[in-house]
């Protein structure tokens, strides 16, 4: 009996060491699994974030394409020249409507300022407009102020424009080289530089995230 007990006691330390090593190995394996799982989850989140950024850049491209880029490509006033003011006159008042609340519209009037300039490139006398938007709103008026109840404020704006044109009778302007339009613009609604600047950051985001996904 004592010999059997002694033999059993002699095997105890060896089994204890194996048990300790096994527990350490199991702990290391579990820790590695947790690390791999955490890394995989982090990679999945990074990939998802990259895909979201690419999708956002595509949406921005779409929005810019139907607004800024389309307006720029449709504009015919592409060439720059210099213009000299010949005459600036308020030719009358144009009826307009403004909002006075929910489901409420009232009528008012705004002064129509007509400006004629000499296009130095050709020497022709043409009508001057502020930008493409004014051409769409009323091609006879240089500037169409926001319609409002206060007529004095709108007249004051137009008078200030007349005074500015008298102080600066020569300036850069934009004309249609194909002569499809008989008017020139003081400023472009969206210039070439504006289009490039608006497309810069979406392009950086798109290609930056695209390269990350490929790696």
From TrEMBL:
Which is one GO molecular function term here?
calcium-activated potassium channel activity
Compartments in which it is found = Membrane
- In the UniProt record, which is one GO cellular component term? voltage-gated potassium channel complex
Tell me the ranges covered by the KCNMB2 ball/chain domain, including all copies: 1-31
- Transport listed as a keyword: yes
User: Which keywords, in A-to-Z order, does the entry hold?
Assistant: Glycoprotein, Ion channel, Ion transport, Membrane, Transmembrane, Transmembrane helix, Transport
Which Pfam families would you find in this protein's record?
A: CaKB (PF03185), KcnmB2_inactiv (PF09303)
Q: How does it sit in the membrane?
A: Multi-pass membrane protein
Q: Which InterPro entries match?
A: K_chnl_Ca-activ_BK_bsu, KCNMB2_ball/chain_dom_sf, KCNMB2_ball_chain_dom
The UniProt entry's GO biological process terms, in alphabetical order, are:
detection of calcium ion
Look up the coiled coil feature and give its residue ranges.
Answer: none
Q: What is its main location?
A: membrane
PANTHER family assigned: CALCIUM-ACTIVATED POTASSIUM CHANNEL SUBUNIT BETA, CALCIUM-ACTIVATED POTASSIUM CHANNEL SUBUNIT BETA-2
According to UniProt, the name of this protein is: S100 calcium binding protein P
């Amino acid at each position: 009996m004592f010999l059997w007990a002694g033999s059993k006691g002699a095997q105890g330390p060896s089994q204890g060491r194996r048990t300790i090593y096994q527990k350490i190995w199991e702990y290391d394996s579990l820790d590695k699994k947790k690390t791999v799982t955490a890394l995989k989850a982090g990679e999945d989140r990074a990939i998802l974030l990259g895909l979201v950024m690419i999708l956002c850049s595509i949406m921005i491209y779409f929005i810019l394409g139907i607004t800024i880029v389309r307006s720029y490509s449709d504009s015919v006033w592409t060439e720059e020249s210099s213009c000299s003011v010949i005459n600036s006159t308020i030719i009358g008042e144009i009826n307009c409507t403004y909002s006075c609340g929910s489901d409420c519209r009232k009528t008012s009037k705004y002064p129509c300022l007509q400006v004629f300039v000499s296009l130095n490139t050709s020497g022709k006398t043409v009508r001057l407009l502020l930008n493409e938007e004014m051409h769409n709103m009323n091609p006879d008026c240089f500037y169409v102020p926001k319609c409002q109840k206060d007529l004095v404020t709108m007249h004051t704006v137009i008078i200030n424009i007349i005074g500015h044109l008298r102080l600066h009778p020569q300036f850069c302007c934009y004309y249609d080289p194909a002569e499809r339009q008989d008017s020139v613009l003081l400023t472009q609604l969206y210039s070439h530089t504006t289009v490039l600047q608006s497309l810069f950051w979406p392009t950086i985001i798109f290609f930056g995230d695209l390269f990350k996904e490929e790696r």
